[in-house]
Amino acid sequence: MSPQKHIWIVRxxxxxxxxxxxxxACSLFHENRIWPEASRIRVFMLVPGAEVPHLCAQCxxxxxxxxxxxxxxxxxxxxxxxxxxxxxxxxxxxxxGACPGRVPHIHPTEQxxxxxDLCGGKPxxxxxxxxxxxxxxxxxxxxxxxxxxxxxxxxxxxxxxxxITRDLIVNLYGEAGEELI
Amino acid sequence: MRGYAGKFIEVDxxxxxxxxVTFDENVLRNYIGGRGLATKILWDRLGHQWxxxxxxxxENILLILTGPLTGFFPGGRIxxxxxxPQSNGVIGSTVAGExxxxxxxxxxxxxxxxxxxxxxxxxxxxxxxxxxxxxxxVWGKNGKQTLKLLTKEGREDLQRRFPCYGExxxxxxxxxxxxxxNKVRMAAVMAKWTHAAGYGGYGAVMGSKNLKALVAxxxxxxxxxxxxxxxxxxxxxxxxxxxxxxxxxxxxxGAAGYEVGAKSSSEPVRNWQEEWHNQQSFGVNRxxxxxxxxxxxxxxxxxxxxxxxxxxxVGPFKGAIGxxxxxxxxxxxxxxxxIFTPEENVYLSSVIDDLGLCGIQCGNLLGFAGELYQRGxxxxxxxxxIELEWGDTKAFAALAEKITVREGxxxxxxxxxxxxxxxxxxxxxxxxxxxxVQEKGVALGAHGIRSGEDYTTDISYACSVQAGDHTSVxxxxxxxxxSELTMILHDSGVYCWFNTFELPEVKWDFIKAVTGWEIxxxxxxxxxxLRILHLQRALLLLGGxxxxxxxxxxxxxxxxxxxxxxxxxxxxxKVDRAEFEQSRKEYYQAAGWDExxxxxxxxxxxxxxxxxxxxLEEKMR
Lengths: 181, 621
Description:
The complex is a heterodimer of chains A (181) and B (621). Helix content of chain A is 25%, strand content 14%.
């Protein structure tokens, strides 16, 4: 049997409209409420026009999983997503510090970390972004090192919103961009 | 109550006291939120002394209100209101952005601000924690700087208070630029860099209260709704209709900068001396190819995302950044000033936004000043050395800066088109009122009525309770989808009108699914909206203290609209006075106003507005 292919969410910040429909879709799916701060994908707008949908990059080595002192984080075999065991997680936040992009955050009213679980393989954020034809989020299959002998440097995408924004505004606004943050 | 957070914050800036305020369900059912509720609050608190309330005095109340549909109906907005320093009535002025979402997620439906802060301040709301903070470090700063500093400060603050949460998304911010600080009557309440609650002049009201900004972060969910499954289905339904309208998503309103001039002859050109142009240099294709750097931009929940980010890449205006000027700013900061290139239009829009001026009000005024210069009434000397030639972008930008700081003639012009015209008339001893294109203190939106080819008609502005506001025009029949009563629903809801184009009836389903209330068109047009309209009308006519409007005189079109169009395919067309008077008479009748334009006693009584009737009887009839 060939190994299960894992998906990965490509983010194209230049195409993000800032509509935040991904936050709405994510929180409706996970919380059955419209709840931007409880969304596993969060759109940062540190500079207008440079909207950054920020979510887990399922990076190599999963440093968040490594850092968890209570083994609340595991990697789903099916999807490759990080799963948070809500019962075990204490909301200590060590995974946030371990993540190169400081992607996880703590649920606003509960004591556990929020990390994108790829909705079990059918991410709702991507679905709405594709339906609306923005194309800022798209699903691709992850390169599988068991097949190709190499994997991509997904960790490069695990940057903080500020780091991403600093690069993005140069692309968008050139030298003037550096003055905007 | 479903759809509502359930409470409002009231802040007295004079005493620095804050408290929670609630409204009974029947008040909310009757006035909804946003514009409707603002009118009710203003009537209750200030109605009896309205003529004496200085819109720029500490006695005015600044209202920043969401509605039950905000955040649910795709494309959330927030309504800014109070006694308007432009019309001396009430204007519901809405602006997009995430501020209303943060506010509702913090547990509040709106903010009621009274008094005046002793020093420059901003209001910080983090869930139930509310603070009045020092804003002296951002006072005097332009929009981009203000937003940058407060975004940084807001995130650092959140990080310090809740260090274990993770990365904090920025709080949402409403602010004023220097124009608001200097109580320029054309000052807007701004969001992001370019979003403006422009009509009404509430930036000046914020400035008069020493209030530079409002900063909000809410960590809760949006309020409970009556039927979440139905709300989800309706969000999808509205969104999918909008996704199908790719033309509007692609071009936004920015296609109109060329089209409204060239095709419908209803775009202001050189202070409305013409309404036709055929300048293909100003075509949307040229904006698209030359200056768009992001093709779809929008705010929370919006399926259309009709905005674009634009940047001038070449020439003397290289480096100017903003959203792509929408139709109104293409017209008022473009054609109305004889400017016909995308780069110059982007530059001037970015300057006006950054100063915190309303692009419509200010563009109208700059055009008025341009015509006075053309006619030799205002000279280079009057304008402190500025040669205000049509098409001279730098000259118009320089004048806008003088207006913002009220320097020289800028101090006169800062009063807005109508009040400035009155003063210049006195100064110069010459009649200039025939050159000012405004309605009851509010500069008109950029949709002329002479050609008869636009959506506006001869009563649109003349009979509107929001005067020159092109997003709330009087229309007969009053139960029509384009009527002012429909706009009252959008502005009270509070959500974006643009997302209703494809499915105009879905709003009633939305109200039911969110609030549980069955408010159908019959109730809305015959009672609820009419009540709000009458209250707004009463307050507009009470007016004062500097100007009061007489319906027989002031429910009229600008003199220019009675002059024939001089050029284009509709040359010769103008507003016919006799026809207008007939339309006005019919509109008064339909709205329930007497032949003098004053709400009728029996209608007010039917609507439960006996108190209003008493005041009008005593002061107006």
